[in-house]
Design goal:
alpha+beta, Pnp Oxidase, Chain A, about 30% helix, globular, 6 helices, seven-stranded antiparallel β-sheet, 3 domains, about 210 residues
């Protein structure tokens, strides 16, 4: 498979066909200016911090004939790890054994990571190439989240070509159930503390009856 030569990092997404449609619909000039500023090609502090908080993302691949496939990947916060400025990695857990992603990557390394933060209405798009690493126990162990109940099968390494962010428009705000439960527990504890303070000020015994 031949690798396209890109003038700008954003060319990984803005193919000639895409640019032609942008020109026809009036957005090419604005995106041409953004190309000069350039999409990012390395992990910076902001992206690293964003990924540290991520417990979910979508991973896209395509077969040699172009048939796309997208799969959800989840785990504890930070399970998608930064190995260096251009390399991400995560443990591939044993699942339904369809192996569509692995099959696609065996004939087409191009891949895409889409990370959504619903609570803060943020999203990150990452283009690149990926490969499967099997039978590297040390690497698999180093990437496996401690205490997470899943069986690691292999590792996926992702080499970043470019990444960009989106505006929050149309992103519904949603919260993880665990975060909501923690917030409610903290609220209930604070309410109990305030009720105890009020009862003490009134000379009442908490849970008792005023004599």
């Amino acid at each position: 498979m031949t690798t396209a030569v890109h003038t700008y990092a954003s060319d990984v997404a803005f193919s000639p066909a895409v640019k032609a449609i942008q020109a026809r619909k009036g957005s090419r000039e604005a995106y041409a200016r953004s190309e000069q500023r350039g999409w990012r090609t390395e992990v910076d502090d902001n992206l690293a911090a964003f990924l540290t908080e991520a417990n979910s993302f979508y991973f896209a691949t395509a077969a040699a004939d172009g048939q796309p496939y997208i799969q959800h990947r989840g785990g504890p916060k930070g399970f998608l790890k930064v190995l260096d400025k251009q390399t991400l990695a995560f443990t591939d857990y044993a699942g339904n054994q369809q192996f569509i992603t692995q099959g696609n990557l065996s004939e087409n390394p191009k891949a895409y990571i889409f990370v959504m933060d619903y609570a803060h209405r943020r999203r990150v798009k990452i283009w690149g190439e990926a490969r499967i690493v099997e039978d590297d126990e040390a690497l698999t162990t180093s990437l496996m989240p401690k205490g997470y109940r899943a069986r690691p099968e292999q590792v996926i390494l992702f080499k970043i070509a470019a990444w960009d962010t989106n505006c929050p428009q149309h992103i519904p705000q949603k919260f993880d159930a665990g975060d909501v439960a923690a917030a409610l527990a903290a609220r209930d504890q604070r309410i109990a503390e305030l009720e105890a303070e009020v009862a003490a000020l009134k000379g009442e015994k908490v849970g008792g009856v005023v004599p």
